[in-house]
């Protein structure tokens, strides 16, 4: 392993450790969601740990009735990506539907609709 790869591995591992240590001390809901989102994205994208990424994404939106704000939308997209990888297409679409895409505007509407299209494409282009 080259020094660049070792450095990247160290950074990824350290980020996971530091964020995990910060989480219990983060009481502000928005800040907590931001830490959970960073953990989830690190686990999904860098560590390849979809199960633990799913847990972190779900901790952001799992018990919420109202969804709003970037952290929530990113979490829904993360959950949908993992559900799609698992072949749980209907569950992925239900997850994205929690964003109320018909009521969204601007870039978030486009992003959520694009995520819905990606789930449909992964399923094979079939109808819901």
Question: Can you describe what's shown?
Answer:
- It contains six helices and no strands.
- It is an all-alpha fold and 128 residues long.
- It has one domain (3-123): Tetratricopeptide repeat domain (Serine Threonine Protein Phosphatase 5, Tetratricopeptide repeat, Alpha Horseshoe), CATH 1.25.40.10.
- Helix 1 runs antiparallel to helix 2 (29-46) and helix 4 (70-85) runs antiparallel to helix 5 (89-97).
- The protein is globular, with a radius of gyration of 16 Å.
- The mean pLDDT is 87.
Topology:
Elements: H1 3-22, H2 29-46, H3 50-61, H4 70-85, H5 89-97, H6 106-123
In short:
The chain is mostly helical and 128 residues long.
> What CATH architecture label applies?
Alpha Horseshoe
CATH class: Mainly Alpha
- The 3D shape can be described as globular
* Total of DSSP H or I helical runs spanning 4+ residues: 6
Which features characterize this protein?
globular, 128 residues
């Amino acid at each position: 392993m080259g020094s660049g790869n070792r450095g990247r591995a160290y950074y990824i591992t350290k980020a996971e450790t530091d964020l995990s240590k910060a989480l219990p001390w983060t009481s502000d809901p928005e800040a907590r969601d931001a830490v959970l989102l960073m953990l989830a994205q690190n686990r999904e994208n860098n560590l390849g740990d979809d199960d633990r990424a799913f847990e972190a994404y779900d901790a952001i939106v799992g018990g919420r009735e109202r969804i709003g704000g970037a952290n929530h939308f990113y979490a829904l997209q993360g959950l949908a990506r993992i559900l799609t990888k698992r072949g749980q297409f209907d569950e992925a679409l239900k997850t994205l539907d929690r964003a109320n895409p018909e009521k969204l505007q601007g870039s978030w509407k486009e992003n959520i609709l694009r995520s819905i299209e990606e789930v449909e494409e992964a399923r094979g282009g079939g109808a819901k």
